[in-house]
Amino acid sequence: MWLVRPVQREDLRSVLDISGEQGTRLSSTLPKQEEAVAGKIDHSIRSFAGRPDAGESARFLFVLENTDTATIHGVAGIDAGAGNGQPFYNYRRDALIHASHELGVSRRVEVLYPSHALTDMTQLCAFAIDPALRGKEPFELLARARLMFVAENRDRFSNRMVVEIQGVQASDGSVPFWDSLGRHFFNMDFDTADKHSGLLSRTFIAELMPPNPIYVTLLSAAAKEALGQPHALSLPSWELLQQEGFQAGCYLDIFDAGPVLEARTDSLRTLVTSRKTTLHASQGDEGETCLISAGRGVDFRCTLTGLGESLKTEVKVPVKTWKLLSRSAGDEVRIAPL
């Protein structure tokens, strides 16, 4: 069976392996350096325990475990506040009107404004999964388990939520937007800049990027076409998030110009359709598959189960589901349809 639970220190090697299997960059993936990932795991453990360090925003990391083999196949995270105490940088897409009354000429010119307006909004991040599971039920379990956690711990998260989607990369691995803009100011390739972003604070972005608006007309044709477009590998995430209620706004990833999706937290599908209920036993595994979770902090668990019967105040599921959630008859759980 598949289970999503909080990351533990002993998951370090598995998380590193999952990050290394992603190949091309996926949105907000974890760094591939052991010390950095260990630090993020410790940060998550403190957050689940409700004891983040002074000045530290809560960050929660979850892993997808195949309980039949005791192996980890995915990792996903939530930052309670984007930027984690520092500015969270994006480009805001807008336009200026250039006009001459004497010549009778008026032209709309698209521009990109450096922005950190999304700072401190809750951010879905650090999503990486076994490529063989993309678009399948375990993929949806890992992605939506985070929202089940948000629903159960609503007071820990902001009223708006954002998520960065990986932008366009060429078949040779080059990044059109970065090559047309960022490379000129950072004097480094995309992978190096992305590595710094994962390992260090993002203040280097403010230090090196031009503070003035960027005129889109000055970018290469490939960079223009890449604005707000997702990478093909990120399409399953893009589609699932859209089904949840996320929509692309006017913000773009500062490195690859991928879309930044936004949503009002309380309007997300999982939060709207999930409900608390009381656990009871069913006689078999038959029934509609749904998400089921239990626990608020370090004991949070979420899995998929067949729903034997669902009444207003109670739900019947197989006993093996009880054991996976570490719950028993009469305990409170949360369920949501797939």
Q: Can you put this structure into words, describing what you see?
A:
The structure is a single chain. By secondary structure, this protein is of the alpha+beta class. Helix content is 28%, strand content 31%. It has helices spanning 12-20, 34-48, 137-152, 176-186, 190-199, 203-208, 221-226, 235-244, 269-273, 319-325, and strands spanning 2-6, 59-66, 71-79, 90-100, 105-115, 122-129, 160-164, 214-215, 247-253, 259-264, 275-281, 288-294, 301-307, 309-310, 314-317, 332-337. Strands 8-5-4-9-10-7-6-3-2-1-13-12-16-11-15-14 form a 16-stranded mixed β-sheet, with helices on both faces. The longest helix is centred in the middle third of the chain and has 16 residues, at 137-152. It is elongated, with a radius of gyration of 22 Å. It starts with a strand and ends with a strand. 42% of the residues are buried. Mean pLDDT is 88; it is low at 24-28.
TL;DR of this structure?
The protein has 338 residues and is α+β, with helices and mostly antiparallel strands.
